[in-house]
Amino acid sequence: MQTQTAADALTLQFLAWVAERPRTYGDAMDRWRTSCPRLSIWEDALIERLVQLENRDGKPRDASDVTLTRRGRALLNTR
User: 12 vs 7, 60, 62, CA distance in Å?
Assistant: First the structure.
């Protein structure tokens, strides 16, 4: 049995937050940006391909949608 770390718990919280309602890159940066290298939840979720940015209609980056990937949704649903 694998022990869940604080970062794992925050990642699941972040994924649930994204899934709760439509979010933008600006929303995510306001809520989840950190300068602590040990708690890089946003960056880790992007690197692990749990979330993605979708920019439709040439919106500014802050208005780009943040959505769960299939992998992110699967992780969230298994916990």
Answer: 9, 27, 23
The domain spanning residue 21 has which CATH number?
A: 1.10.10.10
Residues ≥6 apart with Cβ < 8 Å to 26 = 62, 63
How many Å apart are CA 76 and CA 43, to the nearest integer?
17
Q: Is residue 1 part of a domain?
A: no
Give the pLDDT confidence of 15-72 residue by residue, as tens digits.
999 999 999 999 998 888 776 666 688 888 999 999 999 887 787 888 899 999 999 9
